[in-house]
């Protein structure tokens, strides 16, 4: 039996514990509310596990330090929020292009700018998807409990390692500061995915740091590997990692980077269904709003309304197949989120079924309530 | 005996730099130092940014991480902490190292990260057509200061010294022998080293400021050079506009990783004891 420790902790602390349990040994970041407890937790816990915490001068450098340490073989993570996330976008692009794994915990707050810096929001859904420049793809997960912060940390690191890409962990102020019981289970070695290494005996002549032929990345030896030299770049490159700005190659790299996520969507997508079996109306939600949505389903069920919930744990890539199934099945959907409809707009783009898509939005920095979601559903 | 050629990718030549550019001299100096020190190339990592000198990794057969403009030092910081056994070099121009990445420079120096930063200072952004940088001297003409530059420029070595760099040196491309010696001393310093390499840009800065061809610019470096030993007996007025070369700072102190490793050792031992 794996060792399990029960702790009564907040979501941000569970992120740190989950990251370390998943094998993370390098943290670089810049403190920002409401994510700072992750920095503090990393500073406190990392050395106990042989890991390093460094507080950088800003989020630009934090991202690059993460990528450098990851290239040197350390699973790396950072934590940030709104404006800090914006500064990380520059080199999030570098991570995507260079194909260097890392995990970014983004604890969403009310914005733009300083906004209401200590209040919750879920308004960085589109920043997560399109914040960095150029055509690209991204993986983003959204926790709705302290337990999720721990368990999904493993998922986030595993996806980062498997697909050689930065992964976003889109938490929010409610989940970050919520205290719940968390069962911290020691992850079994077979549950932990470590980046693929080149086959033993691979020569430097044979080795390619990149592989654009399929939808899975090339093996990734660490800088410092005894046999192979590693080369990564943010410039458009060929499979040897050398500058390759020819039109055909630019096109190939762009498609490869997007296909790598799109074509593996079934492997990446996680959704949770709550009372969807016989549902006639549905709520689609994520993160802290999914908790209010779950209560709304229970209240509606008590009133005799056959309601269900589709919770998106993977936000990006959007779980299109599962969303379409819901749109096809029910007559009415309410999209519950703490922004002005960033997710709702995506869901409408899949609505080829005449389903009525309604919105329950909240942007005042107060957690969305079950009643507000019920009211949106009952709107004429 | 190793040769500088063992660390180069000759199939990538001819290089991208203009005729008369100083960057090739620095490239050869770096490769020559690695050969002289006989470092296993698997133990060397280089982070480079964007700009003429940022392309130096194209020609080196070592571990290379080519990053965004100005961010080479944070990337080098990550590599150095991710694997403290590596020799980590960071190559930047004055745009990368002193301007967009100026903040990273002072903090890497202050933290004493075990990285040797080699900045090619050609007083302008050569790759993009000769715009001014934070090292462009006042009154200079560049493509973005067509009427003369009104800003005061950084003295990079003084900046690094004030920020706490443990080894700071300056060389010019007129004297590659000295350049190699200083780069080697920088690598041997366990901590943050800055080697400022003055590299002429005859294509843009030289032409805009009527400094003649590459040979004339090199001669000018020689005329302006004052060895640091001599500079100690000169007044600030006498040193105005001069290039003081040699070892300017050699003041070792424990690097970031050495300091942090003590914490790791203490905390991991205490943690393991508590678990037992």
The overall pLDDT of chain B, averaged over residues, is 97
Helix content of chain B: 25-40%
Structurally, the number of domains of chain B stands at 1
Going by helix content, strand content and strand pairing, the class of chain A is: alpha/beta
Strand element count of chain A: 16
CATH class identity of chain B = Alpha Beta
Global shape of chain A: globular
Helix content of chain A: 25-40%
Q: What's the SSE pattern of chain A?
A: EHEHEHEHEEHEHEHEEHHEEHEEHEHEH
What does the secondary structure layout of this molecule look like, with pairings?
The complex is a heterodimer of chains A (380) and B (276).
Chain A (H helix, E strand, L loop, with lengths): L3 E7 H11 L2 E6 L6 H10 L6 E4 L3 H13 L3 E6 L1 H17 L3 E9 L5 E5 L4 H6 L8 E3 L4 H18 L2 E7 H5 L1 E7 L45 E3 L13 H16 L2 H4 L2 E4 L6 E5 L1 H16 L4 E6 L1 E3 L3 H10 L2 E6 L4 H7 L7 E6 L8 H9 L2
Parallel strand pairs in A: 2-3, 2-4, 4-5, 5-8, 7-8, 12-13, 12-15, 15-16
Antiparallel strand pairs in A: 1-9, 5-6, 7-14, 11-13
Chain B lengths: L22 H15 L6 E5 L14 E4 L5 H11 L4 E7 H7 L1 H10 L4 E6 L2 E2 L5 E2 L23 H8 L3 E6 L3 H13 L4 E6 L3 H7 L5 H11 E3 H4 L4 H4 L3 E8 L5 H20 L1
Parallel strand pairs in B: 1-2, 1-3, 3-4, 4-8, 7-8, 9-10
Antiparallel strand pairs in B: 5-6, 7-10
Helix pairs in contact in B: 1-6, 3-4, 4-5
